[in-house]
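Re: beginner question about structure tokens

> Can someone show what the tokenized structure looks like for a real chain? I only ever see the sequence side.

Sure, here's an example I had lying around. Input first:
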Amino acid sequence: MHGQGDLDDERMMAIRHNLRRAALLAIDLLPTAIVRHETYRNIRRRFSRTPERFTVKPVAPPFTKGGWRERTLAGPETDLVVEGFPGSANSWTANAIRRAIDQPVRIESHFHYTVQLRRALAHGVPTVVLLREPGAACDSLKSKEPQTFDSLILLHWLFYYRWVARHHHALTLVRFEDVTRDIDGLRHADRAVGRLCTRPLQGDALSRRHSPARAAIARDRPWTRWLLAKASQRHRQLVAIVEPWTESLDAPPEAGTRATNGTPESEPFDAPAAGTST
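And the corresponding structure tokens:
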């Protein structure tokens, strides 16, 4: 059993975690000119008991030769940005693109804040933004970070895609359902991806987690219900903009069929376990 000291310690860790989340979200609303990469790094470390390893492990040459590399903001030397809300198949998509490229290129991903998108547009970097239904995306993040307040998760989704909606004309919006059903269609949906990739895109089963969500945002509270309704409304507006490259998912799949990326249709796509990137 946990002692009172352990419970107080857990509460303090949860408070620090949510303060960090709120600070990052507030900083993300500031103008791009005054936001620096070090700002995000310092906030993440200040409100953590131990400094976070602000890095992401690549999965394909030539990236693996250097081991862990920093997760940095886009700049003039960046070739492609692949971003989206956590749990929206970010790893699945970015890793598939990296494996289909032979020459050394710089692909930035997994920042999950609009400052990455703003920097990409400012430097003219082709940008792919993944779009997942807010309820499923927020449940996925809640599974990974159960200590995060539901309202913070939903506000993060709303602020993120509010900016995306305002600048969708300069981005390539991609549905979660499309990349998980037919990842190779991205080569035809985005000109930059098609130019960089020398081979068909193929998903990697190792970059997916097939376990169902272990936690979910509370839908019985008035505030979270209202935020989720707003997020769903925004999602419908964005989906109306996107041109899907797969057939409607409303139609039941034929018995025994598999997605074109080789992954069984029945296996759910969810957030990686704690400690891994989405």
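Each token stands for a local structural state, so reading them left to right follows the chain. DSSP finds ten helices and six strands in the chain.
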